[in-house]
Design goal:
Layout lengths: L26 E6 L3 H5 L1 H11 L8 E6 L4 H6 L6 E7 L2 E7 L2 E6 H13 L5 E4 L20 H8 L7 H14 L6 E4 L6 H16 L1 H10 L5 E4 L7 H11 L7 E3 L4 E4 L16 E2 L3 H25 L5 H5 L2 H14 L9 H12 L8 H5 L2 H19 L4 H21 L9 H9 L5 H9 L2 H9 L2 H15 L4
Parallel strand pairs: 1-2, 1-6, 2-5, 3-9, 6-7, 10-11
Antiparallel strand pairs: 3-4, 8-10
Helix pairs in contact: 4-6, 6-7, 7-8, 10-12, 10-15, 10-16, 12-16, 15-16, 15-19, 16-20, 18-20
Bound molecules: nicotinamide-adenine-dinucleotide.
Nicotinamide-adenine-dinucleotide binds next to α1.
Length: about 475
Amino acid sequence: ERLSNATLGRLPAGVARPPYDRSRLTPGLVHLGVGAFHRAHQAVCTEAALASEPDGALDWGIVGASLRSPATRAALAPQDGLYSLAVRDGLGERLAVVGALLDVLVLPGSAEALLGRMADPATRIVGLTVTEKGYHLDPASGALDLAAPAVAADLASPRAPGSVHGLIVEALRRRRAAGLAPFAVLSSDNLSDNGRVLRRAVLAFAGALDPELARWIEGEAAFPSTMVDRITPATTEADRLRIDRALGLEDAWPVVTEPFSQWVIEDDFPLGRPAWEAGGAVFSSDIGAWERMKLRMLNGAHSAIAYLGQLKGHPTVDAAVADPEIAGLVEGLWAETAGTFAAPSDPAAYARALMARFRNPALGHRTAQIAMDGSQKLPPRLLAPLRDRLAKGAPCGHLTTAVGAWMAYVVVRIRAGGAAALDDPLADKIAARLAGVDRTPAALVGALLSLEAVFGRDLADSETLREALVEAVERYLGGYA
Ligand code: NAD
């Protein structure tokens, strides 16, 4: 039997369920991109907000939209939008059925229903988790790529949009025509300065259609920035079967995640917002500070773990940090990056929480996945703190080891299968640089350092850095040279 409103009462005692009267829940939020991450993160915070006032107005239910695939609707509609969240670590799994999601619309086919919902006076926030690709940004300028096919198609027929910009602008146009204030637009995607980036893109799209509408959006609409963090891998068939057994009911699409969750939000919601602090959200006017700490501590460590883990044959993060050499590198990296940013919270406590997350054996977070797109990830994660340390003449042996591990990883992959074996937007360029050079560590390091888009001129010119990298590459490439 299927999980649904009708079967909620049959869940075993250990499974949490919505503590409020779900029949009174009405929509206040629309969310574009109801993937695993939204359902494990923002929807769960919203659930906590609803639970914090079970006798309150209950007017912050979520209507989700899938912009591309009918799969989420197909799974959740027969369940009245209910799904289970499995929070896992080495001690076991905690299950909760989440009630905040009221409905899922699928864009091809339901554009009118979705636009109607977005333009409805009850909708006060439109959220997004559509991956970086959903933003259609030009990588060089960070501005909206007006020539991207999805964007160009929406500019040609703006009343029947398919892109997030097209949807947001058409819904805002309808609100303006109806004399309604705009909803707040809330990106929870992993993009630096996500609110500002999205605002700029939406204004560019609106400006290309109707400059007056663009001015209204610019003057009236809020685009708060956020920092998000909760590792949420794609659900596997094994997860589904295990969770069905624990529920005693069938859930077609549960979500599996870790205990840790962080959501830092700029508090700019002119029409109000749910009491997300009840779910642990932090409100801050300096999202950039939280972002830098995350990039340099979490993401920097992740990259080091991924490249060294790949070189040493560790398929997952927990396996990699069980290797004392890698755990030591991570601790050393944190010691070096510590002074390179203004910490918005206690960095020692953050580091302890991070190491506990890395050691979580229940997530199976793959080093190969984190290793992707290194040319894009290295600059903010490892090269920015490295620059700071080099400028001060401070020791940076751990940072250079991590960068050297990336170089060794790149060489190993390209030797094994050419550019196609490296999952990176610069793969062709990197392969071309490596093609003509000697196989000595010095020559390989020189070729990779010459990638100006990654290292800039300054790092390529640093003799100290070059020598440290040659040593690291020699160490890790020894077995392969
Ligand atoms: P997912 O694959 O489960 O869901 C992605 C959603 O984005 C889907 O609804 C998909 O249809 C939509 N989408 C993808 N490409 C699109 C496009 N070109 N245009 C419009 N919509 C598009 O992935 P997820 O795990 O939910 O992650 C989504 C995003 O959430 C990530 O890209 C990241 O920005 C953010 N995030 C994820 C995690 C995580 O651990 N999964 C952690 C932090 C942040």
